[in-house]
Amino acid sequence: MASDEQLADIRRRIDAIDNQLLALINQRASCAQEVAEIKLEAARRDGAQSKPVFYRPEREAQVLRAIQDRNPGPLPSDYVARIFREVMSSCLALEQPLTVAYLGPPGTFSQLAARKQFGQSALPEAHSSIRTVFRQVEDRHCDFGVVPVENSTEGMVGQTLDCFLESPLQIVGEVELPIVHHLLVSGSGANQPIDLICGHEQALAQCRTWLDGHFADVPREACSSNGEAARRAQQDGGVAAIAGDLAAETYGLVALHEAIQDSAYNTTRFLVLGREAVPPSGADKSSILVSSRNRPGALLSLLRPFEDAGVSLTRIDSRPSKTEKWTYVFYIEFEGHFADKVIAQIMGELEEHSILLKRLGSFPKAPI
Questions:
Q1: Which residues are listed under the site Essential for prephenate dehydratase activity (predicted)?
Q2: Which domains does the chain have, with CATH numbers?
Q3: φ and ψ at 182, to 5 degrees?
Q4: Which of 155, 272, 297, 310 is the most buried (most CB within 10 A)?
């Protein structure tokens, strides 16, 4: 039949293209190995004073943006960027596998965010708290860390901001992740009553209206993470967990109800933690912690330099300073890089009006 011949011809073309892709991907991998050898040789020449840098967040962001800009379709640009990120992740693993700390246990959205940022070839490490994730990177047990910082419906994650007050780490990237929550139970629990619903406090809040409408009389309990909630559901048929697809897959749970989040646009943003500052990528954000004396107009004096320079703020929040009663530290995020002349001028003005100014880092805007 003509249609069979047409299909056979298309399949031959696909096979030929696959062979070309295989050859090109391995050529790229060989280039990555050459890059690693050059960096290691340079480090050997410099002695202990220099350690090679294999992962360059700004370079990766530039490559992914360029790929999206050049993409002719029919694949959507985000899909193409994800494919290339996996290729880059695999090639980077040939240079040096990255260890990435995240808020665990396995199955959390933080793990999913780490996977989105670093690809499948990174070595993820689950940790029990946000503070521990910071510490693992600070103590060089892990190369990078991924922590939640804000949700589109529930606002900022205070523990993450508080950790920055004491940590020397830099923000080196951001990840935006659509959040879809399910009500998960074990296979044996699918046909028995639910005695308890568990989830991270933010997950419980993001599903509050749905829970009030469907399980108003069932007690709820906050856990350290959605992964921990899923683990409890796995062990107890009377416990239901609020968590996502990765948790269901990790713990062998089934979805009693799907997509129970109150907002269809529920999104969580994660920050990538590192030890070194990131050079400009061409489309960057920066974050600071700043505090001024408690006097009328204090906050206005901190914000006016940004307005005068025409720099857009993308986030502002406050946290107790923990050093003096009723004093606050402001977390301010804005467009631009500390290396930009206009941003340097703003920082100079802020130093004159503040009692604390801590640069948390400049980092590429999330490319995908």
A1: 268
A2: 182-265 (3.40.190.10), 277-364 (3.30.70.260)
A3: -120, 160
A4: 272
What is the reported pTM? 0.87
Tokens of 54: 């294999």
Radius of gyration, alpha carbons of the chain: 24
- What lies within 8 Å, CB to CB, of 309 at 6+ separation is 342, 345, 346
As beta bridge partners, residue 148 has 270
Q: What is the 3-state secondary structure (H, E, C) of 136-204?
A: HHHCCCCCEEEEEEEECCCEECHHHHHHHHHCCCEEEEEEEEECCCEEEECHHHCCCCCCEEEEEHHHH
- Quote the crossing angle between the two packed helices 341-353 and 298-309, to the nearest 10°: 160
Q: Which residue bears the tokens 């993470």?
A: 225
Residue type, position 63, single letter: V
- Residues constituting the chain: 368
List beta partners, residue 363.
285
Please give the Cα distance from 17 to 207 (Å, whole number): 46
> SS3 for 330?
strand
